[in-house]
Amino acid sequence: MFKLHLRPLARRVLAGIRPRPPLLTSARRLGPVDRRRIAAKVRALGPWFHNMNLAKGVWTHPQPDGAGPDYPAWRWNLIKPLLPELTGLSCLDVGCSSGFFSLKMKELGAAKVLAVDHGEQVRAIEQARFAASSLGLEVEFQTLSVYDVAGLNRQFDLVLFLGVFYHLRHPMLALDALRKACTGTLLFQTITTPHQPGTYEACPPAGKVHVGLRSAELNQPDFPLLRFVEGGLDGDTSCWFVPSVEACLAMLRDARFKPERMVCPDAHEVIIRASCV
Description:
CATH topology: Rossmann fold
Number of helices: 7
CATH superfamily: Vaccinia Virus protein VP39
Number of domains: 1
CATH architecture: 3-Layer(aba) Sandwich
Order of helices and strands: EHHEEHEHEHEEHEEEEHEE
CATH class: Alpha Beta
Helix content: 10-25%
Shape: globular
């Protein structure tokens, strides 16, 4: 039986109490003219998905619409304990959006950070580049699909793959590409079918690998499954499927990742830390 622990932060998240947005410590104390310039550019590049502090008093998405002003603060607080020591590492952020997680990795000591995005947020890379320049952080941003990551012919100690999986038409192709690029740790996050929230200090191992077509195991609640979405999911037509937690673990294993630890902040999300096999 695997131990399930609800840590204080997880309890706060489950209770709907969100931590305040984290300040990017690289945010500089600029004069009023520079702050107004940055604020004007933030408005021109909007809307932003990530709420970031680019200068004292200047936030990219303080409004309550969209993901809200507390995003990605609350997710960062869940992800940070799963990260390895970043000093000197090479990092890849796939689906970087406005760039918050990429910038935090660089801020925490990563030697090189490459961030890529090729989604529905058409100005994401432009936003991310502006955020990096405003903060004085050297991060490389490219418009690139996850399927093309293997073609970079580069390898990374740490790969972030957050909020992308369920948007993919070809999920195993993407995981295979990530495995070619990853030499150390993968942080994987996705929405899921319902499950019990909490923190698993060790991921459940594989169940029975071989089953029969008429086996009752195929209909067991813990058998890996993907629920295909033919239309939209809560109005979002970019979602192709919703996986179970067991399916996420099984697909990662099949792509030669070893799931080590996972956090389920609510009944419909999982964050998994995996290493390369």
